[in-house]
Design brief:
Length: 206
């Protein structure tokens, strides 16, 4: 996933020659956390921050936005002014439930750097990025689930080794037992314990 989305940002900067920075990030609680970014000037040592005002608009509207003149359209936004951003585009990343979980953004230090066609392009890339992220998360979940199942299978095998394989044979008595946990393993235990004098203890534990 890291390689795919890093390549997506590199492609965006190639296709949008006026873009100077690209950022993809996730929304965690009330914060937007940049996860991947690309700067056109690789020598730049720039802090990766994104305007919360822009993110809130994208999350609230669930659609891509184009800001042609940030100083005029977003007056008083500290991060915009501090980073000398003059124009930008931002598109939401959405999950299968149509909920926004992140965003992809490109910006420039020049006004009117992007047009409507550029916005459509960014929105299309955001859809593909959303699919890639969602598939990667599903794949990661499946791998984790499989690892858990393997651990549980091992635990079940270990637990079965503690249980008696066959009931005892005692003249005049008949024993039958059955054990089936609701899932892979359970908290129950039973055993037959021979005692002195030919006696037999039956242990049941929960």
């Amino acid at each position: 996933l890291d390689a795919v989305l890093a390549d997506a940002l590199s492609a965006l900067l190639r296709i949008l020659p006026s873009a100077q920075r690209g950022v993809i990030g996730f929304i965690e609680g009330d914060e937007f956390i940049p996860r991947w970014w690309k700067l056109r000037r690789t020598s730049e040592n720039q802090a990766i921050t994104v305007s919360r005002t822009v993110i809130d608009r994208v999350v609230g509207g669930k659609e891509a936005i184009l800001i042609e003149n940030a100083m005029r359209e977003l007056p008083g936004t500290h991060s915009i002014a501090a980073m000398s951003i003059r124009s930008l585009m931002c598109a939401p990343l959405m999950d299968a439930n149509n909920e926004v979980f992140g965003a992809i953004l490109v910006d420039s230090e020049a006004t009117h750097s992007f047009d409507h066609d550029d916005l459509v392009l960014l929105a299309s890339v955001a859809v593909q990025a959303s699919l890639a992220i969602n598939f990667a998360r599903l794949h990661e979940h499946a791998l984790k689930q499989r690892a858990i199942e393997k651990d549980l299978e091992l635990a079940r095998d270990v637990q079965s080794e503690f249980l008696p394989k066959t009931p005892p044979t005692i003249p005049g008595y008949e024993f039958a037992d059955y054990y089936a946990p609701a899932r892979f393993v359970g908290g129950d235990y039973f055993d037959y314990v021979p005692l002195a004098g030919g006696k037999m203890a039956v242990v049941l534990a929960d």
